[in-house]
Design a protein that fits this description.
The complex is a heterodimer of chains A (about 325) and B (about 375).
Chain A (H helix, E strand, L loop, with lengths): L18 H38 L4 H5 L14 H5 L12 H37 L3 E2 L2 E2 H9 L6 H14 L6 H25 L4 H8 L4 H30 L2 H6 L7 H10 L5 H21 L1 H9 L5
Antiparallel strand pairs in A: 1-2
Chain B lengths: L16 H29 L11 H22 L1 H6 L3 H22 L1 E2 L9 E2 L3 H7 L2 H32 L5 H13 L2 H12 L6 H8 L11 H29 L3 H9 L4 H28 L4 H6 L11 H12 L2 H26 L8
Antiparallel strand pairs in B: 1-2
Helix pairs in contact in B: 1-2, 4-15, 5-15, 6-10, 6-12, 7-10, 10-12, 11-12, 14-15
The chains are: A mainly alpha (about 325), B mainly alpha (about 375).
Chain lengths: ~325, ~375
């Protein structure tokens, strides 16, 4: 490796091998070592729990008790954890109530989080666009106030809505239904989606639609044909962030679901509580619960970064 | 927030009087229907007549019908102008339906004595719940814990800033590090509760406990004393949420004007001086935004507490949310729990308003 990117701080003494050059190089290499040491150290802190969970799902009791870490080297991987879920190679063909139950929870989570995120992005994009383009006045409220009304919902702690919703939903017969959970999740991610989308639309110059409007297109046509394609990356960003929040949501799901619509986090939590459960089973369930978002995180990282950077920079 | 350039083009539209009339009729008609249905349901709920409603769904459907009519009516009455209103109106109706009504309901519940496990329904409690709250040591303890958890945001901020600085340097495999640093945020807090809280910190075989033993701590019990348990919980929550602040700060760092930093270098400023006098001051607005948003999320902290310690030992890790969760789950106290939640909301609103006011002049570019 050459000293690529090494800033030339001392242009008077760049002769190879001069004293200045040597001390400077030494300092440059030490700083590199420190930087990469810190980076790798933190990467280990971030990744080790995931590695631990994956490997534990392949451990047997003695491996757990001896804290063996590295598969094949320290211990021989076994399908124990996955067999108890009915997802190991031998059991995958056979009937398994545990697997059916797990897949039902998984499907519930997927239905609820994808629908809620899609609905939130749909409503939130329209709102973000409207607020960034048209001057509204509802009574004394103008654009800034309306935007504040939506975004300020972010501070509502879930616990304030939880018990009223329990009563509200039981009166409306929406407890333990997909639609009830979807509506509530949409509500909780709307402020973030509107924040991101308004930021995205504000960065698109309005001359684009003005031209279309002058040409006689309606506002809806201009929005759908001209603005949507440009704002698509922002919409994906908002969708992914909403998906992360709704997939992982536990608090409302724990209170508002009971049998049919239990989501994955609730299932994981109910297993954590029971004493006799084996580590390998817990590890397998936990890993299956986090895997979808790990994949999303790796594939769509730049959208997540884009979404979270919204509003940070002007 | 600065206002972007609005569109001022007025599109010509000729709307017949008949169309306007139909629009108004639709809105008023659906509203009348809503009033009638809600009225009938109220009469049944109060016990005057029995119409055989099993739940409030009829009222819900007429409410939805009225909302839709209101939206359609805007287009019928105002044409293009109405279509512009439709960008915001559906979300506004959605949010109002699902926050204002439950919140009003919540206020009513908060002043009632309502225990789901007792045979009688709700009864008006007056100020009884408030008196009970004032003498509830566990609730005040949970509120005090929230202060500690919130103060920990400063430490998280320092670490997140350091990581953002590292990622903004000229490094190899930048994408790998960025993805790796982001991963904790992707993980379900409930799964993390088991992965780290229950297994890696497990007293006998957990790898972190073993590491602690190897480092000379003979008795690595992370949840044994109140202080230690609270710190452990804070560290776990920090682990999940540091990436969030890191990404915001990284975006801020990447948007810094490079000329200013180069000018500082040319003028002979050391790396520390450049950071202290140039980078950090320029980062203050982004930092404050990141800290405030992080505090908002911190105030919702509950999942990992519920699943790892359930507030223990002795309530030392309890958050307000996890406390109210147990108040409901274990004791079915809907009325009292709701009052605690609403009181918490009032504190949050006052606290955040003061905070944002106080910090406002440092955040000028954003307000």
């Amino acid at each position: 490796m050459t000293a690529q990117g090494m800033p030339q701080r001392n242009p008077g003494a760049i002769f190879r091998g001069s004293d200045d050059d040597l001390t400077y190089r030494a300092r440059w290499y030490t700083s590199r070592v420190v930087i990469y040491g810190l980076l790798i150290g933190w990467a280990v802190v971030c990744i080790f729990p995931i590695f631990w969970t994956i490997t534990t799902s392949f451990k047997q009791a003695p491996d757990v008790m001896q804290s063996n870490l590295i598969p094949f080297l320290d211990f021989e991987p076994a399908w124990l954890g996955w067999r108890s879920l009915g997802l190991s190679p031998e059991t995958i063909g056979a009937d398994s109530t545990v697997r059916d139950q797990f897949l039902a929870r998984f499907t519930n989570s997927a239905i609820v989080s994808v629908s809620a995120s899609a609905l939130a992005v749909f409503l939130g994009s329209l709102t973000g666009y409207g607020l960034s383009r048209f001057g509204y006045q509802f009574g004394p409220l103008r654009n800034a106030d309306i935007g504040f009304f939506f975004i300020s919902q972010l501070i509502l702690p879930p616990v304030v809505l939880a018990l009223p919703f329990l009563v509200f939903y039981s009166e409306l017969a929406l407890l333990d239904t997909h639609i009830g959970l979807i509506l509530l999740y949409t509500l909780t991610v709307m402020p973030i989606v509107i924040w991101i989308m308004r930021d995205q639309f504000m960065s698109i110059p309005s001359e684009l639609e003005e031209a279309a409007l002058v040409d006689g297109q309606g506002v809806w046509g201009a929005f759908a044909r001209i603005i949507m394609p440009i704002a698509l990356p922002g919409m994906i960003a908002a969708f992914v962030i909403a998906l992360v929040l709704t997939w992982n949501e536990y608090f409302f799901a724990a209170l508002l679901t009971s049998t049919d619509t239990i989501t994955l986090p609730v299932m994981v939590a109910s297993q954590t509580g029971s004493q006799g459960i084996s580590w390998w089973t817990m590890a397998a369930i936990s890993f299956a619960a986090i895997l979808p978002l790990i994949v999303v995180g790796i594939l769509l990282e730049r959208f997540i970064v884009r979404g979270m950077s919204a509003g940070a920079v002007k | 927030m600065s206002q972007a350039d609005l569109i001022h083009i007025v599109q010509p539209d000729d709307i017949t009087e008949r169309r306007k009339r139909i629009g108004r009729l639709l809105i008023r008609g659906s509203f009348a229907l809503l009033v009638v249905v809600v009225g009938l349901q109220l009469l049944q709920a109060l016990g005057y007549i029995d119409l055989g409603f099993e739940n409030w769904q009829p009222a819900m459907f007429t409410w939805i019908f009225w909302c839709v009519s209101l939206c359609v009516g805007q287009v019928l009455i105002r044409g293009e102008q109405g279509k512009r209103i439709l960008f915001v109106l559906p979300s506004a109706l959605f949010v109002i339906s699902l926050t204002i009504i439950p919140l009003l309901l919540g206020v009513a519940i908060a002043f009632s004595d309502w225990n789901l496990s007792s045979p009688g329904g709700p009864s008006f409690a007056g100020l009884g719940n408030i008196e009970r709250m004032l003498s509830d040591a566990f609730y005040w303890n949970a509120l005090t814990n929230m202060v500690w958890y919130t103060l920990a945001v400063i430490v998280e901020y320092a670490i997140a800033f350091g990581l953002a600085m590292l990622l903004s340097l000229q490094i190899r495999a930048r994408r790998f590090f960025r993805v790796a640093f982001l991963l904790p945020l992707m993980l379900s807090p409930v799964a993390v509760s088991w992965m780290i809280g229950k297994s890696m910190l497990e007293f006998r075989f957990g790898p972190i406990s073993q590491l602690a033993r190897a480092l000379g701590w003979e008795d690595p019990a992370f949840f044994a004393t109140p202080e230690l348990a609270r710190i452990t919980m804070g560290v776990l929550d920090a682990w999940i949420f540091i990436p969030f602040m890191m990404i915001m700060l990284l975006a801020g760092l990447q948007a810094l004007p490079t000329e200013v930093i180069e000018a500082a270098r040319v003028d002979g400023a050391s790396a520390w001086q450049t950071f202290r006098k140039v980078i950090f001051p320029l980062m203050i607005p982004v930092s404050l935004t990141a800290i405030i948003v992080r505090i908002i999320f911190k105030l919702k902290l509950a999942d990992i507490v519920i699943n790892i310690t359930a507030g223990g030992p002795g309530g030392s890790t309890d958050t307000v949310t996890s406390f109210i969760f147990r108040e409901y789950r274990d004791r079915s106290n809907v009325g009292y729990g709701t009052l605690l939640a609403i009181f918490y909301l009032v504190i949050i609103i006052i606290g955040l308003t003061l905070l944002i006011r106080g910090l406002g002049r440092w955040m000028r570019p954003y307000t």
